[in-house]
Design goal:
With 135 residues, the chain is an alpha+beta fold. It is 52% helix and 20% strand. It has one domain. Strands 1-2-3-4 form a 4-stranded antiparallel sheet, covered by helices on one side.
Length: 135
């Protein structure tokens, strides 16, 4: 009878140690899994950013050459240049500029909007430009 009462008296300590061991075991499994998962996620984010940066560089080149061809009357003397890039409404917007004369201090600009879903370039006119301006 004495052994049974001793067992009952120490049963709480036994369960406390058992729970503590299970918690420790759970932490020993969960922490490395979380670290590996975070490392994989971070690696994917870096890769996504690298791909997006490459896509933006590609779009900048396409917009510059398209605006140069369509809107710049004197492309040999005054090559176009990219003066700004931003994202708006899930599109990539590139501002392309060119000088009217080679020695001009001012330059003209035109927006080029790239839609990643369709892969199309467009250039809004004077009344549609406000929608794509960077604010």
């Amino acid at each position: 009878m004495w052994a049974f009462s001793y067992f009952l008296a120490n049963l709480g300590d036994y369960f406390d140690r058992l729970i503590a061991n299970k918690v420790l075991l759970g932490l020993l499994v969960a922490v490395p899994v979380a670290i590996l998962g975070y490392g994989h996620w971070a690696e994917q984010q870096v890769e996504t950013q690298r791909v997006q940066a490459a896509a933006v560089e590609n779009v900048k080149g396409q917009c510059r050459s398209w605006i140069q061809r369509e809107y710049n009357r004197y492309p040999r003397n005054n090559p176009s240049f990219v003066s700004g890039v931003w994202s708006k409404n899930e599109h990539i917007v590139v501002e392309v500029g060119w000088r009217k004369q080679a020695d001009d201090a001012t330059y003209r600009t035109r927006l080029c909007v790239y839609d990643p879903r369709s892969g199309r370039l467009s250039s809004p006119g004077a009344f549609g430009r406000w929608r794509w301006e960077q604010y």
